[in-house]
Amino acid sequence: MSANLSAKCDESVDVLISGGGIAGLIAAAAFGASGHSVLCVDPAPPVTSEGAAGADLRSTCFLQPSIRVLEEAGLWERLAPHATPLQIMRIVDAGGAEAAARMVREFDASEISDKPFGWNLQNWLLKREISARLETLQNVRFLPGTGTAALTARSSEAIVTLTNGSRVAAKLVVGADGRNSPVREALGIGVKTFRYGQKALAFAVTHDRAHDNISTEVHRSGGPFTLVPLPDREESTPRRWSGWNAGRKSRGLPLCLPMRSMPR
Ligand SMILES: Cc1cc2nc3c(=O)[nH]c(=O)nc-3n(C[C@H](O)[C@H](O)[C@H](O)COP(=O)(O)OP(=O)(O)OC[C@H]3O[C@@H](n4cnc5c(N)ncnc54)[C@H](O)[C@@H]3O)c2cc1C
């Protein structure tokens, strides 16, 4: 980078992370825990309570190898109490003319190790816990409300212009800024888009029957319908709190098999 450009920057960091979603926040914690100076920016402040407008009701399943990354980032000890093991994956083929299960197969993690396949966490809760962890790292700054506006890459550094007008020099830029990534666009990285003609809903339900740490995927020709296990909503009741994700051709509502047709 020319000295000229570098001199015009307001600050300099090791790593600039564009995007404070799950990927960006975890990257900020990981780089921060390993001693790098980090600036993470996102135009949207994280919504950190479930009932608030704009809360991300999606969930993320962290498979076994990712736990070591979370441990090294100082995150797993915060997250573990909220995580639900994914012990059994139940796959349901309901692709026939009738909205009914044609074939059901279950895969139990105990067949391959003494641990679950992974652990599920709700995205809004991840944002709350990871943001809290970032506050404990003095070398990490998270700037919600400010986004990436432009990027100029050079051989040794990149200059990132933020939406608040400031310019930051960074040795590494991480593009974790979603499907319309401004970092990707600024670097001229091409993208191929496939339209499936589907819409997705993400939501959470409570139910009386225990989910037994089973993830259920119902596959219809119009799209999948997935139930992932989440922690009990209230400790004192046997009810479980689960997230459902559904996809379906855009002309209709998501596929909803009647509960009685769900296999046990
Ligand atoms: C319906 C649905 C259900 C899903 N269910 C599951 C599941 O059960 N399990 C699972 O593991 N995964 C699931 N996923 C996938 C998972 O939720 C996503 O892959 C994951 O959350 C993506 O995280 P991310 O941080 O990469 O991106 P995002 O969450 O999209 O975050 C991108 C961030 O970049 C920010 N941004 C945008 N513009 C800028 C800018 N100019 N500058 C800086 N920041 C910017 C945005 O504000 C946003 O906060 C699901 C996805 C969907 C759609």
Summary tags:
264 residues, alpha/beta, FAD/NAD(P)-binding domain, D-Amino Acid Oxidase, Chain A, domain 2, 2 domains, six-stranded mixed sheet, 6 helices, globular, binds flavin-adenine dinucleotide
Q: Can you say what the CATH homologous superfamily of the largest domain is?
A: FAD/NAD(P)-binding domain
Give the low-confidence spans: 245-264
Q: Please identify the structural class as seen in this structure.
A: alpha/beta
Principal-axis shape equals: globular
Terminal residue distance: 61 Å
Radius of gyration, whole Å:
21 Å
The CATH topology name of the largest domain reads FAD/NAD(P)-binding domain
- The residue fraction in helices comes out at 10-25%
Bound ligands, each once:
flavin-adenine dinucleotide
Beta strand count: 15
**Helices and strands, in N-to-C order?**
HEHEEHHEEEEHEEEEHEEEE
Question: Within the largest sheet, what's the order of strands?
Answer: 8-2-1-11-10-9
CATH architecture classification name of the largest domain: 3-Layer(bba) Sandwich
